[in-house]
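Q: Convert this sequence to C-alpha cells.
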Amino acid sequence: MARPPRHTLSRSSAAHSCRLPKHALLRAGAAFFLATLVALPLAVLHRAALSRHSLEHLWGWDALPSVAAQEEGGAQGEDLDIEDLKLDGVLKKASMGDNTVILTTLNAAWASPGSVIDLFIDSFRCGVRTSSLLNHLVIIAFDSDAYKQCVKIHHYCYFLGTEGVDFSGEKRFLTSGYLEMMWKRLDFLRLVLEKGYSFIFSDADIMWFRNPFPHFYPNGDLQIACDHYVGNATDLRNIANGGFNYVKSNERTIEFYSFWYSSRLRYPGYHDQDVFNAIKHDPYVADIGLEIKFLSTAYFGGFCEPSRDLNKVCTMHANCCIGLRSKIHDLRIMMEDWRSYLSLPPSLKRLTPFSWRVPQNCSLSSQNQ
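A:
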C-alpha cells in the first residue's frame, strides 16, 4: 500500500496533537474548580481568624463584644432594670397624693439598735401631727447591714449599694468615705426628681417635732434649712445646710441637681453642702430660673443655731457635731426635753420659757477641748 503523502500525515498528527491538550485542559479546569471549592472556605475561615487581631492591632479598634459578652451585658442591664423597678415600686407606695415622699439615708453605723435611726423614727411618733408621715418615709440603706435593720423597724426600705465601696462604718466629717457617701446621696436624689417625685430629704440625725408642710413656702422650687439664717428667705447670705430640704420635681430642680453634682469636680475635697453654698451665687442658677427659699431656724433649727421657741419648732438637727457618740448623747437629751415640754399643760406651754439643754457633748467648746 502506498504511503500517504507526507503533508497529509503531518496534518493528521497535528490535528491529533491539538485534540489531546483540549481534553487535558478540560480535566485541569475541572480539577482546579474542585480545588477552589475546597480551599476557598478554608481561606475565608483562616482570614476571619486573623482579621480581628490584625485590624485591632493596626488601628487600635476595640473588638465588638461576643455573643456571650452581650448576654452578660444584657444580664447586668436586666439587674439595673430590676433595681429601678424596685425603686419605682417603693416610691409609688410611699408617696403622697401629689407624688411627694420623705427620704433619709442610713448606714450600719447609724442603724444599730438604740442608735440614730431609732431616735429619728421615735421623734415622728412623739411629734405633733407627724406620726402619719411615717407612711411616706423611705429609708435608703447604703449597705446590707443597714438594709437588714431597716426592714425590721420600717416598711419602706431601699438598698442603694455601691460595688467595691463599703459605706457601713462611721464616716467622720470630711473624710474621703464621708464625701463619697454625700455625693452618692445627692446623685440618688437627682434620680428621684427625674422619676417625677418631689421630696423632703432629712438627715436621720434630725428630730421631727411638728409637721413641716404648713411652714413651707408655696412658690419655692428648692427650700433648704440653714446653719445660719439672716432673717430673709431669699437672701443668698444665708448659710444653707443640705441635711434638710424640700424639693419639687420639675425641669429646674432636675437641672440644678445635675449642675450641683457635676460641680463636685470644680471643688474637689468639698462636700455637697459647701459646694451648694458656693454655686448658689453662680449666674447659671438664675439663668435656669431656680427659685431657692431658705428656711428659718425659728422652725427648722439645729445645734448650730437652735429653734428657741418649742411652741414653733418643727425640726432640730444635730449639726455642728462631730462624733457618733456625742451626737447620740445629745439627741437623747433633746428627746427628753421634748417629752418634758409635751407633758406641760397648754397654759404653761405658752407662758413658761422652756429651753433646750443641748448642745452638750456637741457644743463647740467641748469639741475644742
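Residues 9 and 259 are 102 Å apart (CA to CA).
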